[in-house]
Specification:
The protein is of the alpha/beta class. The protein folds into 3 domains: 195 residues, Rossmann fold; 58 residues, Helicase, Ruva Protein, domain 3 (Orthogonal Bundle), CATH 1.10.8; 161 residues, Nucleoside Triphosphate Pyrophosphohydrolase. Helix content is 31%, strand content 25%. It has 16 helices and 20 strands. The protein has a 7-stranded mixed sheet. Strands 17-14-19-18 form a 4-stranded mixed sheet, sandwiched between helices. Strand 3, helix 4 and strand 4 form a beta-alpha-beta unit. It is globular and about 80 Å long. The chain starts with a helix and ends with a helix. Bound molecules: S-adenosylmethionine (SAM). The site of S-adenosylmethionine has 22 residues, from strand 1 and strand 3.
Length: 447
């Protein structure tokens, strides 16, 4: 949008830019085109824009794909946006508390925005949560914040936000924009950054909750050494520091993101096994093989059971919180079956000699790191969806947080039942078939 068009639109709306909403409208058409080109939008891509304002970025995005969602807070702009972009979905609301979980049913999407400066960090964190359908994010931010997000270890710009977001996202600083391309011109320069998911294996795998705890503690007082700050969560700092190749006198800003990951994966018994190099031991586990009546007829290794499609046993557990939300896990990329698909809160095979209920309790401990009582729902007969397994379906009640082993689980999230119903209906391909079967059975059992 040219400056004259922006001014004309504002006067038609009888509105002027509002400082408290961080309104600095972009009036350089070429720059808007360039920004959108950095998203590489194709006609089938789905995208979401935060704070479309008068449409400076919306217009070029819309020319490339009509599958867009807009989130705008300013009441004065809603009717205008609805009329100008009738094909796009418009959410009148605050992007800081927008429920990103609602987006999963729409599939992967590209996120963009010339963000209102006063809430840029909150928006960044909301849309880069571990469980997000965003595949790339392109944001214009205050230059200082952009530099902080893209900073390398050792500098004063490198801080907790850099390290927290940097575990999953690679941040590129694309270019700086002068204040003069905005109406009104802000007091500071802006920069465009692009966040893309880090390729698998680029950083050591670790538990996200442990990582976040250590990073927040470590950066809580920048001048203090890590030994003191991390003590409540990591009393063996000296040993851990040696293992990750850091001096014991280190401060938070001297540790690279890779070292933070190693630190989170470190245990007094040594580093947790790297799932990328270890792969799963497909031959080590032994399961009971059963007949059509679920009677044990022998034993076989995990490999034989799957290779020869022998009937065996497994459990799925649905964990609910007090709000009635169900915790779903996204299977890790290293899983031999259904990698990166969404699955029950916890699930696993019944080992030789074990019963279903014991297995359910063990799986909760191994996969989520918690002890909880389980309640039997139903036994599901072997079928293609369960991989020829008898499945004991259980529920449990817990509020989290959970400790998720990175070799097994990429991430996890609570979802409302309504969100899951819509998501399963729209995109069954996102879920492991075994979960879909259990979901179906659980819903029928509940009615
Ligand atoms: N995208 C437009 C452009 O580039 O010209 C406008 C960018 S302006 C910097 C920020 C936009 O975000 C404004 O339209 C403002 O009303 C909107 N906004 C402010 N706070 C918001 C919030 N919490 N949630 C969603 N939108 C918000």
């Amino acid at each position: 949008m040219k400056l004259s068009e922006l001014q004309a639109t504002l006067s038609e709306l009888n509105a002027s830019p509002t400082k408290s909403l961080g309104q600095n409208f972009l009036h350089d058409k070429n720059l808007a085109e360039w920004i959108i080109s950095q998203l590489d939008l194709s006609p089938s891509d789905h995208w979401l824009e935060i704070g479309p304002g008068l449409g400076s970025l919306t217009h070029p995005a819309c020319e490339r794909s009509s599958h867009g969602i807009l989130i705008e807070k300013d009441d004065r702009l809603i009717a205008f946006l609805r009329q100008r972009y009738p094909k796009l979905d418009l959410v009148h609301g605050d992007a800081c508390d927008f429920d990103v979980r609602n987006l999963f049913c729409g599939g992967p999407l590209k996120v963009l925005g010339n963000l209102p400066y006063y809430v840029s960090s909150q928006i960044l964190f909301n849309f880069t949560a571990d469980a997000t359908p965003a595949t790339v994010l392109l944001f214009t931010l205050q230059k200082e914040l952009a530099q902080r997000m893209a900073a390398s270890a050792g500098g004063k710009e490198y801080g907790a936000p850099t390290v927290l977001i940097g575990r999953r996202w690679k941040v590129e600083l694309l270019r700086t924009l002068p204040a003069s391309v905005f109406l009104p011109a802000p007091k500071v320069e802006s920069s465009v950054i692009r966040l893309t998911p880090r390729p698998s294996g680029e950083l050591p795998a670790c538990d996200a909750a442990r990582y976040n705890t250590l990073v927040k503690l470590g950066f809580s007082q920048r001048r203090k050494q890590l030994g003191k700050l991390l003590a409540p969560a990591l009393p063996q700092w000296s040993e851990a520091a040696e293992a990750i190749g850091a001096p014991v006198t280190s401060r938070a800003e001297s540790l690279s993101i890779e070292q933070w990951c190693k630190l989170a994966a470190w245990t007094p018994d040594g580093p947790a096994t790297d799932p990328a190099s270890g792969a799963q031991d497909l031959h080590g586990e032994t399961f009971d093989v059963v007949n059509a009546l679920d009677e044990v007829t022998g034993q076989a290794s995990r490999f034989e059971v799957h290779e020869q499609r022998l009937r065996h046993r497994a459990v799925h557990i649905f964990v609910f919180n007090a709000a009635g939300e169900l915790f779903l896990q996204k299977r890790s990329r290293w899983k031999d079956v259904c990698p990166l698909m969404w699955d029950s809160s916890a699930a696993g095979h019944v080992n030789a000699g074990e019963d279903y209920a014991e297995t359910a309790v063990r799986e909760l401990r191994e996969e989520l790191g918690v002890d909880a009582a389980v309640e039997f729902v139903e036994k599901i007969e072997p079928c293609a969806e369960t991989g020829e397994e008898f499945v004991g379906l259980y529920t449990a009640a817990h509020e989290g947080p959970f400790r998720l082993p990175p070799a097994e689980i990429d991430c996890g999230e609570w979802f409302t039942l309504y969100q899951i119903v819509r998501w399963v209906e729209a995109r069954p391909q996102d879920f492991a078939p075994g979960f879909l079967k259990c979901w179906d059975v659980w819903r029928r059992a509940r009615c």
